User: What shape does this take?
Amino acid sequence: MTKNLKIAFQGEPGANSHIAIVEAYPGAEPLPCPTFEDALAAISSGEADLGMIPIENSVAGRVADIHHLLPQSGLFIVGEYFLPIHHQLMAPRGAKLTDVRTVESHVHALGQCRRIIRKLGIKPIVSGDTAGAARLIAERGDKASAAIASKLAADIYGLDVLAEDVEDETHNTTRFVVLAREAKWAEQGSGPLVTTFVFRVRNLPAALYKAMGGFATNGVNMTKLESYMVDGNFFATQFYADVDGHPEERGLAFALEELQFFSREFRIVGVYPGHPFRATFSEKAE
Assistant: This one.
C-alpha cells in the first residue's frame, strides 16, 4: 500500500521527480522540497517516508550533487526507477508559437531541447527547475514567454502546450534512486538485484587495481564505477559503484571481501531490485 506514504523530491509540483513518484507509487503523497539537501533532510527527520532522487540522465550524465550528498546523508537506497523524459514547450493560455520570444527552464532541459530553440529563434533563459519555470510563466502571463517542462506541469499551472515532446534525443531517460532512513535489503534470489556501495582505497600503489581484481576473478558484473573528490581534496577520492547481485552470493561476497582488504572505508548503500528498464539496454556478452 502506498496510500499513506509521503515521498520527498527536489523541485516544484510538476517536476519530473514528481512524475516518477506518481508512476512508481500511485496514491503516495509527493512532498516538494527546494533543494536536494532539504529533500534528504525531510527523509532523515521522518517528515517523509521515502525520497525520489535523480542520480543520472542518459543525455546530461550524473547528477553531481547526489554523489556528494548521498554518502554523507546516512540514508539507504531501497529501489530505483527509470523515467523517459518528455519535454513540452508551453506558454500562457491563448499563446501561439509565433508569439514566443523567450523560453525558460532548467539548464539541462534547455540543453536537451536545442533543436527547437534554434528552429524557433527564441532566447533560452536558465531557471532553477522545469516546473518552477512553468509556474513563473503562468504567473507572469506574458504570451511572449514560454517554458519547457512536463505535461503535468502544464496541467498544474494552466498552460497551453504549444509543441509536444521537443527533446532532441528519444532515449532521454533519468534514473532515480528511492531513499529511506533504514536499510532494507532485497531478498537473495528474488530476481535481478543491484548492490550499490561507496569506498575509498588505501594509500598503496595499485590499490584501486587490486581492489577491483576480485570482481573480475569472481565473475561479478560492475555496471557503474564513478570517482569524486572528498572535501575538495585532490588526493582524497571516493568511489561510487553499482554491481549486479546480492552481497551474500558467493562470487560477490568474495569480491567485496577483497575490495575491503584494499579499502580504508567501505559502506553498502543499498541492495535493491533492478528496474525492468535495465533489460532494454543490456549488451550481449562478447
